[in-house]
Amino acid sequence: MEAEVHIAYREERKIGLDIETDDSGLLIGKRGKTLEALQLITNIAAGRMSNDSRRIIIDTEDYRSRRESSLVRFAQSAAEQVRRTGQPRLLEAMNPFERRLVHTALGDSKDVETVSEGDGLYK
Fold first, then answer.
1. What class, spelled out in words, does domain 4-61 have in CATH?
2. d(CA 105, CA 85)
3. What is the b/e burial string over 42-78, where b = at least 16 CB atoms within 10 angstroms of the residue's CB?
4. Helix boundaries (H) for 51-93
5. d(Cα 70, Cα 63) in Å, to the nearest integer?
6. pLDDT of residue 97
7. What is the mean pLDDT of the chain?
8. Are the C-beta atoms of residues 114 and 98 closer than 8 Å to each other?
9. 59 contacts 18 by C-beta, under 8 angstroms
10. Starting from the edge strand earliest in sequence, which strands make up the sheet with 4-10, in order?
11. pLDDT digits (tens, 9 = 90+) for 85-99
12. pLDDT-derived band at 118, boundaries 50, 70, 90
């Protein structure tokens, strides 16, 4: 796979890398799992090689922003279904960042409660 990596931003606590490639689907993987794994490996390697404690965020084709918007819409749709049916709704297992997005998106709702269940990284 050929790719170009650009520093998208540098902040106090994180550095954003944007990868340009014709194989972005392969890089992203199913529900972003490959991109997430690459980011994890990159952060582990960077942590071992440098004293810089900033977190590295890897993205391609604005996937992360699109995924965030999609998750918020999905959470709002699930909440509307719960309101209509009065029945709880079980969502797919999510990583901590995605769970936080869902909890935040529905946090002001007075008639819907969000709860994370399970053990491990994905709940």
1. alpha beta
2. 20
3. eeeeeeeeeeeeeebbbbbeebbeebeeebeeebeeb
4. 63-85
5. 10
6. 86
7. 92
8. no
9. yes
10. 4-10, 14-20, 55-59
11. 999 999 988 888 899
12. confident
- Phi and psi at residue 110, to the nearest 5°: -85, -20
- Taking residues 3-19, report their average pLDDT: 93
Q: What residue spans define the domains of the chain?
A: 4-61, 65-105
Instruction: Please give the DSSP secondary-structure letter assigned to residue 37.
Output: H
pLDDT digits (tens, 9 = 90+) for 37-86: 999 999 999 999 988 889 999 999 999 999 999 999 999 999 999 999 99
d(CA 27, CA 36): 10
Are 76 and 105 contacting, i.e. CB atoms less than 8 angstroms apart? yes
